[in-house]
Queue: 4 jobs
Job 1
Amino acid sequence: MPKLPVVSGAEAVRALERLGFAVARQRGSHIVLRRGSSGCVVPSHRELKTGTLSGILKQAGVSVDEFMEALARPLLRPMNHDSALVNSP
């Protein structure tokens, strides 16, 4: 199991979105994500302590390896077809 990196709350949310989680809501500095019946709460701090990140991953049911892979790959968002028309020659 690799060592957990120091990441921001926003980076953690992006990685979890890559794993199929979606932002359900935000209240103050806490972001609630859902994937089916599982979910987790991520504080939107500049740096998440490794213990906090470990707890988030346990709550989400995500392994450290899965999280590390998700951090490394780009987030695929659906293309907005209207913007494609604006940029075409």
Job 2
Amino acid sequence: MSYILEALKQSEHARQQGKAPDLNSLPPLLAPPRQSARRPPAYLLLALGLSLAGAGLGWWRPWQTAEIVVLAAQAPRSEAPSPPSAPAAPPKAAAPVEPAATPVALARPPTRAPQAPLIRLDPQPAAPGPAQPLVSAPPAVQPEPTLPAPSGRVLGFHELPDELRQSLPTLAVSGFSYADEPQLRMAVINGRILHQRDQVAPGVVVERIASDGVVLNYRGFRFRPR
């Protein structure tokens, strides 16, 4: 700060003498400067001092010297090259190992081992398997006898085919009653009172009750019972 004040004072003194100040030729202030009749404003003196100080710092550049010193201190030291390592010695060849001398055994006659008696093993018979169940053959189906085609006429009992007569149940007609009106006609067969279209036995139907007798129907054959 004292340097700046001294520079301001020297500048004022040089201005009064009519020449520009020089930083390198600034003499030390030995005597107080002459007082002028009219002093400039203080802000002009301050601005002039700051500009001179900036010019001096720009010419001197104190920060550049410090940066060079820092860079020189940070420069890595060159490491001294290490001496080359000696090459490894080649491995020594292993000495060949001589095989140990094997003792020679005296040849002895081979001893024959006693032979075991031969045992003959007969194969055992296989165990019988489980008996297969006997499957009885189904009875043969007897074909039904072929009957002739029924005729349109009323047959007597003995005129029926033998197979048909043998398959008929017992039919006993006790009596019958004829009337003009069909619903009033009736017959007594096997002890039962039946009308036309009634069933006497399985498959045997009263087809008609006429004035001369009763007509039955069995498997398409019309006949009179005996």
Job 3
Amino acid sequence: MPRNPLVLTAVLLLIVGALFLFVHKKSVVSTPEAQPQVTISTVRYGEYIARITAYGRVGAPAGAVAKPAFALPGILAGVDVRVGEQVAQGQPLAHLDTSGLAISAEQARADAAAAAAGYSGGAVPQAQLQGAFAKVEAARTRLQALQGGGGSAQSDLTSAQSVLRQTQIKVQLDEQTLQRQRTLFAAGVAARKDVDAAQAQLNADLADVRANAAKISATSNGVGGALTQARADYQQALTDLQNARAQQGVLSGQAASARARAAGAQRDLNNGTLLAPHSGVVTAIYRHAGESVDSTTPVVALGPASQNVVTLEVAAGDARKIHPGAFVKLRLSNGNASAAGHVAGVGAAVDPTTQRATVVVNGVPPGAIPGDSVEATIFMGRDRGVIIPQSAVVQDPQSGETVVFVQQKTKETTTFVQRSVRIGKSDGTLALILFGLRPGEKIATQGAFQLLAPSGA
């Protein structure tokens, strides 16, 4: 039995060796299991559809609602529309109490008619001007005759006396006219310029009286006096001609001013009715009959005629990539209703506070009402290239590089190697890779961030 201990020893050594190999192998196999649990995806080459997810509401953009107000202050007599009513451009929305405006407009029209009659389209001042020309010509002829030795002092005296009586009568009439114009001006009917015109006419005729009186005095001295008077008559005729020309401008200005006042009064009367600036839907009524209003007081709110639009808010960078006509999928946030639409317009400005821009889309999900929250997917275009899940992309906090973890397998182990990549486009779900990966490679997706080397390792 001496060999039995040796055999027993050999058996024990074999058992110990087997146990050692078993434990060592188990330790090696369990190493990969210590790595983080990740999801594996395959890099593929295919079509990338660029898209942007945005959120908004049913309805037109803010600022699309008009809030018209009256151009002049007054008392609101009534509102001619109701909330929800469709109105056309130019349709009356509300009206003021215009009784006072109507009286003012009628008075202004009467004043304009009176001024036009006094001017007669230029006929009255033109007749006065022609008379002044004739008077100048007659005075020139008489002066030339006297200078040539003709004429009679007695005839001159008789003529001067007759003319003096006529001018004195004119002065009396002028005084009556001036008094009447002053009375009308004090009553607020006539304008100040009418009083000034009557005063000017009286002054001119008084000058004629003085001239004629001087003529009588001069003619009594014989032919020499007659010649002196003829010169005075000629000068007076020239003065009358200047006055006639001035009167023509005065009457023309009075007529034009009266027409302008009449037009202004009629405009105020018309502004007593508030008209719709454009077609649309009445969304609110702010004032009611009996209330005071002015140009700063909106009376109604007028929204767009169609609410079949969705207003979205997108980041400024994304807004620059969106073009009118782009296809959009819409879905109500509080339900399953969905619809297709197209971009109608992109806001030209960016909100400086939120750094977001407005995008308007034609079309709304069925059953949607203004104000409903909407989720939208805007399709930007198509590309072909290397595509991976967005979740596979990791930003290395130490180097700042964009990396992906590529799976490498051996017979015994599975590891992940960090590799830098460049992203062309991404939409939060998929990323289009410009370089760094090849189709068919396996990469870590969910849990890829856990594969980063610890800081300081």
Job 4
Amino acid sequence: MAIITEEVGDIFSAPPNSILIHACNARGAWGSGVAVAFKQKYPYAFRQHQAYCLSSPTGSKLSVKQHQASLVGTALLIPPPTATNQRQASKTPHYIACLFTSLDYGKRVSPPEEIVENTRKALENLAKQVAEMRAAGEEVGKCCPVRINSGRFGVEWQKTKAVLEAGGLVITVVRPEAEQKADGAGTAAGGQSPVKDENEKAKGEKCAVGTNARRSNRWTSGRTKAKGPFEKQTRGVKRKVEKDFEDGDDGREDMKGERLA
């Protein structure tokens, strides 16, 4: 059983080379919830993710929709920016792991039981990629997810946590301070499940992952080299993607919780 710990802080202040993990749909959209914060903090990662989802590999006979369906239950591990872009590399020295736990989003999101099973498969895929990178001598840090699946996907956190515990990765779950306070207040007031509170908050509250969380003094930024199996995953994938992709999610928010046009 894997060791799972939880900390309160800002996930974006994780040590250099850490793997920041979040759950994604396979349509190439980061349009709501914590994905918006990731999109604003790591625009290069969003572009890589979008291209990966919206273009079938060169030579593949799969349609785009068939390609997207094949991604469910897998993980895309995006390395930090290369050393050619030192400014960006020093600001965002993290790997971004996208777990494809639902094919779609919004009203078409997969059922909770499917999301849980897809999470199990995606974590196995991610663990394999991480093991290969470490075996090759690449510097890969700690694995830091948010409480994946428990926001817009509406899955009870304890079910996803059980999958994490059964996996092969040592994981540190990072929660924003505002979320912890809200959970504590809800439990003290009526003994309600934190997951229920979080699902209600997801409908309109601010996404506090990037701005309201307490920064840990242990976590510092740094530079890193872009390595890993990402090139294998994206080999042959067309890179032509529209500049401004509209995901059709009317509930989009920015990192401060403001609704986007």
